[in-house]
Each structure stands twice: as structure tokens, then as C-alpha cells.
Amino acid sequence: MNTFENSTKKTFFLKALLIATLLVSLKWVLSYVYFDEDIVLRVIYESQDSAYYPLIKTFADFNFSPTFSDSSSDLKIISFPILSLLINSLFFKFIGGYSFIILEILCTTCFILIFYNIFLKLKFSNIFLINCSIFLFILPTLLIDLTFLDIKTLDLLSVNLQKFYSMRFPRPIISNLFFFLFIFLLIDFYLKKENYVKSFYTLSILMGIMINVYFYLFFIEFFLLIIVFLYKFKKDFFRNILNNFKNILFSLIIFLLFASFFQLQIFFSEPDYIERLGVFYLNSDQKIIMFDYLRNFLFGKNFLFLFLLNTFFFMIIGNKTIKIFYFLFLSSILSPIFFFSFFSKGVDFYHFFDWIVVTGFLFPVISILNIFNLKIFQYLNHYRLKNLMNFFLILMILYFNISNGMKIINKIDKSNLKRNNTNEITNFINRNVFFTNKNLEIFNLNIELSNWFLLNDYKNFSIIPVSFWTPKTNNMLEEEIIASLKFLELNKIDFYKLIKNKRMSWRFKNEFAYIFFGRKYLANSLVTYNNDLSDFNHEEKKYIASNNLLITHQVIIPRSEIRRLLNKFENMNKKINPDIVILDKDGYLKLDTLQNDNFCLIFDNESFVIYMNKAIDTDCRSIKN
Distance between CA 325 and CA 578 in Å, rounded? Predict the structure, then answer.
């Protein structure tokens, strides 16, 4: 019997792996058809978000204080949670660039397996399990494709459901799998009549992981565990706690070890880096504003409709186990209330509200699938039902690939020129022996190229264009950009043009200031730099007041900070002296020529130029274009 069960599990795993490969691989197939690139550049362009890749690389090298510069040392550690990138870093350590492709397939396989087993626990028909799992996987894509109907509620759902699951590293592709696994194990705990003690330990480990990986979901898990514990034991709640006190205590200790690791990392991390992440403190007045917003949200028509819809399904659904997803929805509501009440600082509060929508949509979807399972499929014989399920399975895989394939091709058509030019410059670097020296000091502000350099072990840069990648202090970053601009013979006016506040449609966002200073100058109706509105002009104040307090991607530098930075530019005489200078003709500076006789041109295409310091080779003869 065990041999048969093991064989069945292995067969299903292979089936899930095959389906996952069919769902994920088209993007990579099209990439190989359209572009002839090395794997690192391919991954950078095909990923939904490559911003975390330098951290994945440095964590893989056990470097938690990356300076990316020979002139900087003794930095504090990065405060971005180490455990959140652990799986990515380990895979990259042993497999390299191909790890991102392999992880996409493996994570999709895990998603299918987890929800297959969740639906199995919910007593869905065996023949219906795989289809339900695939349906949930393609649901975010389906909702995006339906936005052409121009229905506001549908647009809102399509945005929020991207948080449910997608191929974005590391969240949600890996982080949410821990969350879904927690839900599965909690359902398993609820259904067990005895021998459920081990569940305490596994659930505490997963909660410990989640507080490091994505703490918003940790709070949902915390309340969900309490509610399900009450739901399972009811009047015997306290008696079961006393009977299992020792196991619960040990489980709590396990969780606290994970939580302590997170706190220790924060304690030893660079405060300026935390500020650039957008973490801010809430005073009593700001807490009142947050609770006002929360109250308006909970009494708004969209939420009330969602709440009534969930409550309706809770009342009519006969399957008690499925009701755990209603409790999941309630837990997502309790989480922000609890957080705003007991914590005085935070970041990206919109994640709490996004997950209220996600969980509020998930329970009705699963309830409807259950109704199909009970009321419709029972009228079909096994042979017809099997054929129907196979048909829908093939249809969903085809739809997902066609939908995403069209988007990928459209994206390729738009980025073809720049991407090919980037490929040319990386091929040039790979061909020339000179660039085998990974300690060359390189000046470059192009993000894709910086990513490529960092993933290929280049270690010494005049400046890192994305402050998220390094725990350098704000002062160090400011000095680097000023020294770089002075090296390029740019003046104070040029510096002002680079950092000045810029209005972009419905918000202010200077893209350079955002990626270079992070969210240090975050500005919305809840928080601004130093919380001093008098430091902004009339138009900026208007946009700050009208900008939703959950929107954390508007940055406006106050006037006093602009003046300080300009004075610093004027008074600082330091310049960089790199070995290699790469200018992006379409980048922030719009430069295509370096006016410096100490450098010679060694590469030129439609997007980039490369100059080499003559101190390395007077005639630049060692380089072949």
C-alpha cells in the first residue's frame, strides 16, 4: 500500500512539474527565439522585478554589508530580511543565473501541489483538484485581461490579485508559498482528531519564517491560528491550551528565535538604509489619521459589499473546513487594526489593505468552486467528467500562454533596440581580456548594466545607482553622486535638474531621486520628510494633501533639503577617477561624450559609450571593439 501511495505521489508530482513547465516556459522560449544573450542579461530582462538580484548575489556570498567599492568599508549590515532571500541565494550560489528559471518552475509546481492538497482536505472531487489549483494560478492573469471592460471594481481586483501570486522574486513567488503552506497545515491541524501536537511546531516555524519574509502575512497567520484554535476546540479552548502547555511553550520559543533573528538584524543594520526603505514613525496625530482612514475603508461601499458577500457564503456553505477561508478574511481585517494600535512605526501599509481584498475574494471563489464540485459535477459520469476536466485543463494552459505570450511579444517589440544595445555592450565586455579584472573601478548609472555587472562578480563601482543595494550612509551616497557629476564636468544647475521635484501625471516622482535616495523623501497625506509641510511650495502641498496615505511611491524633496544638497555640491571638491566610464545616452544625464583627455573611447553604439582611463593603457590598444 505504501509503495502504491508513493508511486501515486511521484506520478502526480511529475504531472504538476510538467504543467508548471508548460505554464512558465513560454516566456523563456520566446526570449531565446528573439535574443541571443547570456543567461544573466536574459534573466534581468525577463524577470518581473530584478531589483532584488544584487542582494541575492551578495547574500549568496555571505556578504551582508555590500559596499561595491574599494573606497568604502566597515559598513553596518543591510536591514532587508536575510531569510526572505535565503532560497534564492542558495539556488544562485550553486546554479547561477539559471536558478531563476528553475525556481519559477519549481515554485509553480509547489503552488499546484499545495492547493491540490488544500482542495483535497476540503473534500473536493479528486478529478477536480488539479483544475481548481490551475484556475487559482491563472486567476490574476484572467482578471488583468478583463480590465478592458472598464469596471472599477474589476480594475481594483486585478491590481490586488497580483499580490496573491505571480513570478515576481522574491515576493510573491516564494514568500506566498510559505503562507499557502501555513494555510494547508492549519487546515490539517483543524481536521485532526488526535496527534496534532506536531502541528504546533510546524506552524510556529512557518510563522517565524513569515515574520522575516513578509511580516504583513505573519499578522494574518497569527489571528487565523487563534480563530481556528477557537473554532476547533470551542468550549474546550482553555483546557486544550493547559493540556498542551508544554508543547505550546516550546513552539513559542521556536517562533521567538526566528523573531529575535529579525530583530537582531534590524538592531545591527544601517539606520539610513531603513529610512531609505520608507520606514517611518507614527506619532499620535498620525495614528488618528490612520484609524480614520481604516474606519472609512471598513465602512466604504466596496468593503461592505465584500464583507456581505463573504458572510453570505459563510451562511450557505455546508463545508465547515472551507469556512477557514472566511476566518482568513477576518484575520486580514484584524491585522491592520492590531498593528496600528500597538506599533509606532511601519512601512507600506497598503499591503494590509491589499490582503483584505485578496482574502475577501478568495473565500467566495473557493465557495463557488465547492458548489460546482457538489451540485454540477455529480450529474456527469466519471468518463465524461474526466474528459471535461482534461479539456478545461488544456484550455486554461493554452489561455495562460496565449495571454502572456502576446504581452511578452508586445514588450519585446517596445524594448528591442535598448535590449539589443545592452547585449552588444555585455558581449563586448565578455570578449575583451581587459575586463577579466573584476576589481576595475566602473562608473555607470544604467540599472540593467549595474545588475549585470554585480551578478557577474564585478566589485568596484564609483557609484551604485540604486541605494537599495547597499547599506552606505546617506552622506556617503550624496558624496558619491556629487563627486561623479563633478568628474563629468557638470555644474550646480545640472545637479539641480537631476534632483529637482518632477510632477508625473497624478503624483510627484523624480525617478532618479526615487531610486537613488529611496523613500527618504516619501510624501503623502500621512507622512513627509520631517513632517514639515511649510517646507514645500503650494503645488507640492496640494499633491501631498491629495495623495492617498497608502501610496508610498511619491517622493518630494523639501526646499531646505534641496538647498542643503546644492550647497554641498558647491562646497565639495572631491572627484572620482574610475578605470571605466559607461555613459547611457538615454539615461538620467543624457550624455554621449566624455570631455576628459585622460580617457579614450573604446565602445560606441546607439545607447551606450565606454571610455577607458589612459592610466590603464595609454593608447587603449588592448581593447578591441
Answer: 57
* Single-letter amino acid, residue 73: S
With residues binned 3-state (H G I as helix, E B as strand, rest as coil), the percentages for the chain, rounded to 5, are 65, 5, 30
- What are the distances in angstroms from CA 2 to CA 5, 8, 10, 211, 383? 5, 10, 12, 37, 27
The confidence score (pLDDT) of residue 1 equals 44
Beta carbons of 209 and 81 less than 8 angstroms apart: no
Reported as a single tens digit per residue, the pLDDT across 500-558 is 999 987 889 999 999 999 999 999 999 999 889 999 999 999 999 988 888 888 999 99
Question: What SS3 string covers 277-305?
Answer: HCCEECCHHHHHHHHHHHHHHHCCHHHHH
Alpha helices by DSSP H, listed for 456-611, are 474-487, 492-499, 511-517, 538-546, 559-571
Give the CA distances from residue 520 to residues 280, 556, 600, in Å, rounded to whole numbers and listed in that order. Answer: 9, 9, 37
Contact 42, 35 (CB under 8 A): yes
Q: What angle do CA 238, 244, 249 make, to 5 degrees?
A: 100
Instruction: Give bridge partners of residue 582 from the DSSP assignment.
Output: 610
Parallel, antiparallel or unpaired: strands 580-584 and 608-613: antiparallel
Q: Are 159 and 181 in contact (CB under 8 A)?
A: no
What pLDDT score was predicted for residue 373?
87
- Among candidates 152, 335, 370, which has minimal Cα distance to 227? 335
Which of 486, 472, 435 is closest to 595 using CA atoms? Answer: 486
Which pLDDT tens digit goes with each residue over 121-134?
999 988 899 999 99
Contacts of 587 (CB under 8 A, 6+ apart): 445, 446
Output the CA–CA distances (angstroms, integers) from residue 521 to 275, 417, 514, in the order listed. 9, 34, 8
**Which of 39, 42, 169 lies closest to 108 in space, CA to CA?**
169
Element (H, E) at 452: helix 447-455
Residue 452 · residue 57 · CB < 8 Å: no
How do beta strands 580-584 and 442-443 pair?
parallel
Contact predicate 91/99, CB 8 Å: yes
Report how far residue 125's alpha carbon sits from residue 119's, in angstroms, rounded to the nearest whole number.
9
Asked if residues 138 and 392 have their Cβ atoms less than 8 Å apart, the reply is no
Question: For the chain, how big is the Rg over CA atoms in Å?
Answer: 27
